Amino acid sequence: MGLPAGIDSAVIDRLKDAAGPGGWTADQDLILPHLVEWRDQWTGSTPLLLMPQTTHQAQAILAICHQNRIAVTTQGGNTGLVGAQIPRGEILVSTRRMTAIRSIDPVDDAIIAEAGVVLTRVQDAAREAGKRFPLSLASEGSATIGGLISTNAGGVHVRRHGMMRAQVLGIEAVLPDGSLHAGLSSLRKDNTGYDLKQLLIGAEGTLGLVTAATLRMVSRPQVMAVAMLGLETPDQAVALLHRLEDATGAVAAFEVMNRTGVELAVRNTPSRDPFPDAWPWLALVEFEGSDAGLLARCEEALGAALEAGLAGDALLAQNETQAKAFWFLREEMSAGQKPEGAAAKHDVSVPVSKIPQFLAAADAVVNRLVPGARIVAFGHCSDGNIHYDVVQPAGMEPDAFRALAPALIEAVHDVTVGLDGSISAEHGIGISRRDEFIRREPPTHLALMRAIKTAFDPHGIMNPRVLL
Ligand SMILES: Cc1cc2nc3c(=O)[nH]c(=O)nc-3n(C[C@H](O)[C@H](O)[C@H](O)COP(=O)(O)OP(=O)(O)OC[C@H]3O[C@@H](n4cnc5c(N)ncnc54)[C@H](O)[C@@H]3O)c2cc1C
């Protein structure tokens, strides 16, 4: 493809120089993997991929873009689910070469990682230091620190450890004019004015390019246990969550999967349902703690939950292989849908107490609008965050379903908002939810957000199609 309209080729040469040797390509074959995303929902284009290796190079690139009003899209591991990392003609800046772990300090419980470091590497580095980095999600083998910060990613341990926002002590970022926000603090307490890093977290790349972060480590739990339970209803799931938490004080993850999700995962992936009975819901519970009596308390709590009728069956993983198999089933909930055709996806949250109400009302709406649609509801029950995916009816033309999807999504989001929920629990707004976000958000919130955007990025060059 050609250069974006109005950009001098001399400016493009300056950008290539700024990125340094090995730091750019215009070869469309090499760029192609950066232009499609995991679910094949978004495709894009760019004339140039820039891959700075140092903060200084990133500063030089953004300064040139700022001076010349050149729009930029930033990309980390390209696992985002709302299309924000896919350029549509903008210059693409990838952090794939910013991969150093600059320091790790087990006394300050802090690790400084560059933006392009993949999450599993941070987890491994913390483990090697005798600590733990508690953020965990199914894309952890590809998602990067910069992307996780910019989407304020959640995952499976949020109830106990918080979202990415809670793991970040400090941020180094290049602002849109090329200047540096040098904020790699490891302080846990710092009340000196506005906390600027909090604005960069969850900004989806619209306020600057995160180049590195100081991340908080926690102690390693000595005992971990994973259980799978078979349930009849989502009401049981909510009651079970509290019962197990009250009895053990150690629930680290509490995930649910509905029958349709389990069936599609078993049909289309190497995962298996651990129960002989086809329970309408499965709950996957991970416990963590450090006292020697924890395992016995977990067993006792599971037994008591069965006796109280909060579950119909329960399995406590007997070894790591079994625990991994339980998690594998949960992680394949999305992959299991893929061969079944088109799907309308929702990443909603409601107060935990309202999960059963949400599911009943959303199911009714879907069944009315698209009879025969297959509802895959799964996710982070302990955070009220349900991934509510509607897969096209078997045999329907995918395009016919896609034509119905906007009305379906709107209706499910109406249910969500009516229950005091959020239309984006953890994936962000990106381009896929932008119009709806702008329509639903109170004007005063939008005005403040736009003022913040203008203060950081007066020429609007950073991820210009995203969020606002
Ligand atoms: C199988 C699967 C499971 C997932 N599970 C979860 C889950 O449980 N919880 C959850 O929250 N998310 C989940 N996700 C979503 C995804 O992994 C997260 O959004 C992740 O945080 C994105 O990281 P990334 O490096 O891939 O960023 P990208 O996808 O490359 O980018 C995402 C956004 O961040 C911006 N960005 C990236 N790097 C930078 C940077 N250095 N500076 C500024 N902006 C930047 C991009 O412009 C874009 O707006 C899942 C995704 C997949 C594919």
Give the SSE map.
Layout: H1 9-19, E1 24-25, H2 28-31, E2 49-50, H3 55-67, E3 72-75, E4 91-94, E5 101-105, E6 110-114, H4 119-128, E7 131-132, H5 145-150, H6 158-161, H7 164-167, E8 168-174, E9 180-183, H8 196-200, E10 209-216, E11 218-219, E12 223-231, H9 234-248, E13 251-258, H10 259-268, E14 281-289, H11 294-307, E15 313-316, H12 320-331, E16 343-344, E17 347-349, H13 355-369, E18 374-380, E19 385-391, H14 398-418, H15 434-440, H16 443-456
Parallel strand pairs: 2-4, 3-4
Antiparallel strand pairs: 1-2, 5-6, 6-10, 7-11, 8-9, 8-10, 12-14, 12-15, 13-14, 13-18, 16-19, 17-19, 18-19
Helix pairs in contact: 1-3, 9-11, 13-14
Number of domains: 4
- What's the count of strands? 19
- Assembly classification: single chain
Low-confidence stretches: none
List of distinct ligands in this structure: flavin-adenine dinucleotide
Q: In the CATH classification, which architecture of the largest domain applies?
A: 2-Layer Sandwich
Q: Give average pLDDT, whole number.
A: 96
Going by helix content, strand content and strand pairing, the class is alpha+beta
How is the biggest beta sheet arranged?
8 strands, antiparallel
Helix content: 25-40%
What percentage of the residues does DSSP assign to strands (E)?
Answer: 15-25%
Count of helix runs:
16
CATH class of the largest domain: Alpha Beta
Could you tell me how far the N terminus lies from the C terminus, measured between alpha carbons in angstroms? 27 Å
Form type: globular
Rg for CA atoms: 23 Å
Q: What is the fold-level CATH name, i.e. the topology of the largest domain?
A: Uridine Diphospho-n-acetylenolpyruvylglucosamine Reductase, domain 3
